[in-house]
Amino acid sequence: MQFNEFPYRRIDIEQTKQQFNDLNSQLKQVDNSEDALKIIQDIQQLQATIDTNETLVSIRHSLDTEDSFYEAETAFWDEYRPIIEEWMNDYYRIVLDLPFREALEEELSTTFFKLIELQLQVFSPEIIPQLQRENQLITKYNQLIASAKIEFQGEIYNLPSMTPFIESQDRSVRKAAQEAMTEFFRDHLDDFDQIYDEMVQVRDKMARTLGFNNYTEMGYARMSRLDYNRQDVEGYREAVLEHIVPLVQEMYDAQAKRLDLDTLYYYDLPVSFKTGNAKPMGDAEQLTQIASHMYHEMSPETAEFFEFMTGHHLMDLEAKPGKQSGGYCTYLPDFKSPFIFANFNGTSGDVDVLTHEVGHAFQIYQSRWITTPEVIWPTYETCEIHSMSMEFFAWPWMEQFFGDASEKYKYDHLSEAVKFLPYGVLVDHFQHEVYDHPEWTPEERRQTWRRLEKTYLPWKDYADNELLESGVYWFRQGHIFSSPFYYIDYTLAQICALQFFQKINSGAINESWADYLRICRLGGTETFLSVVEKANLTSPFEPNILATISETVKNYLQSVDTSAFQ
Questions:
Q1: N- to C-terminal Cα separation, the chain
Q2: Alpha-carbon distance 531 to 520, whole Å?
Q3: What is the rounded distance in angstroms from the CA atom of residue 204 to the CA atom of residue 210?
Q4: Do the beta carbons of residue 426 and residue 452 sit within 8 Å?
């Protein structure tokens, strides 16, 4: 069965509630782990059906945000997902009260119990109205971003489709492209401010209702951070400032020389070489064929996986009008199928997204043996290890994607991996400030963003663009709106992925792949730091690891003759 044939059925809320109540009642009465597991398996199947139908709506609405049927279904799930959470929390409380936890942990995993303990901290029926409103606001933000119609050079583009112009070799074109995009955010300044302001108030109210001091505390629990805390993150951000920011400044100084520019303005940053950035050879269909060849050569496991993805049409890669921005991977449990969503635009980012989202999809495919829905996916920072590391495992095949420009691509790809780190911790720091100060006005939030930008991204010069100088760049960062505190995760995972790069570059490819495959199969049955250990990597929180990574990257980049790319 192909993706477009996957049937969607809106669940009957009352019937499903009764099923949950009946199963929960039975679970309360059991006196042994074997009977408990049988009932839990029935609950898990019910979970899978709910999740499958909700995810089908999410995918199909993101493919066409103007489809009225899936818009209405999205509204349904926005309203009822928090109510379903209440049923789930009843189930979690019963499981935690059962007297044979040790036996259940062998089947469900210890991590499952840790996760549901956190879940019970962040939910109460009292906050259902706020959860419903939060969902509605996220949908409103996504629709606003997807509605962008940028007039440029006589044509109309959405935001993802503007990327080729942003990376133009012609400085006047990329400047004009950035200004055209800025106009969209200028026109909707009040909309973005109002959406986010209400989000902050809603989340702060939820946190205080549940007994947290603020949403920052609740956000960490919602993100399922099991083995590190705010102090660890603050120390990590300081290490990025100490070891990574100076390296990135050097990289941009070298970039300015390559471009023969005295000053790099914000619209120059995406362009690495006078001859332009490396571009892949082909459209979405051709790149998929190349990827198929690559994954068949990479390993038997990736070959089987990619045949499954293409055979069932589980990827939608091309940018289209009305399509949601960005890229993601999700999972449809009833069909045991990952799904990849992207917006290809003819830039090297197409290959980045393809390999990145395939990393997520490959992990979930390898984890399909796990029957406990809560731990098929790992926690977020662990998920990103799989995706970001896959980008580096794909390096030996880059010539097939880029031809003679493959070395240029690798140089830029590694550079961008490191340049991302300061931006990633900026997004994290900004959110800490916002939720620590829920009383701030939209203007104060924008001023704080710009202040932190100057700390973590001192090279970002907005020239004469007054709107960006006022601190609105973060409007385009969807995670800040839809997944608060989900961003430091990318940087932590990037440090792990860069360690895989170190090993691959040193020739330890087979050992690295074995480590990678091992952690993909673990799914979410282990915590982040446990997965890092099982991958034979060093924790990003360990002293000196960022200094070591910085030195490795610096040595690689200095070994490359960039004059060959000019």
A1: 48
A2: 9
A3: 10
A4: yes
Q: CA separation (Å) from 135 to 76, 332, 414, 437?
A: 10, 20, 36, 22
In total, the chain counts a number of residues equal to 566
Centre a 10 Å sphere on the Cβ of residue 57 and count the other Cβ atoms it contains: 22
Return the residue matching tokens 């973060």. Answer: 474
CA proximity to 392, closest of 280, 484, 316, 503: 503
Arithmetic mean of pLDDT, 56-62 = 97
Over its C-alpha atoms, the chain yields an Rg (Å, rounded) of 23
| Whole-prediction pTM | 0.94
Q: Give per-residue pLDDT as tens, 502-547.
A: 999 999 999 999 999 999 999 999 999 999 999 999 999 998 999 9
User: What backbone phi and psi angles, to 5 degrees, belong to 324?
Assistant: -60, 150
Q: What is d(CA 174, CA 39) in angstroms, rounded to the nearest whole number?
A: 59
Report phi then psi at 157, rounded to 5: -130, 155
**C-alpha pair distances (Å), 274 with each of 233, 279, 281, 408:** 38, 14, 19, 12
Q: Which of 544, 239, 562 is nearest to 414 (CA)?
A: 562
What is the DSSP-derived secondary structure letter of residue 318?
E
Report d(CA 417, CA 248) in Å as an integer.
10
Phi, psi of 431 (to 5 degrees): -70, -35
In whole angstroms, give the CA distance from residue 220 to residue 118: 10
Segment 464-498, tens digit of pLDDT = 999 999 999 999 999 999 999 999 999 999 999 99
Closest by CA to 148, choosing from 180, 196, 173, is: 180
Report the C-alpha gap between 366 and 302 in whole angstroms: 10
What's 487's DSSP letter? S
> How far apart, in whole angstroms, are the C-alpha atoms of residue 343 and residue 318?
5
What is residue 334's DSSP assignment? G
Give the phi and the psi of residue 340 in degrees, each rounded to 5: -115, 130
* Cα–Cα–Cα angle for 333, 85, 67, rounded to 5 degrees: 60
DSSP state letters, 418-444: HHHHHHHHHHHHHHHHHHH-TT--HHH
Angstrom distance (rounded) from CA 327 to CA 341: 5
Helix (H) or strand (E) holding 155: strand 155-157
Burial grade of 181 (CB within 10 A; 0-12, 13-18, 19 or more): buried
Structure tokens that stand for 121 in this block: 């901290």
Closest among 86, 210, 87, 82 to 135, alpha carbons compared: 82
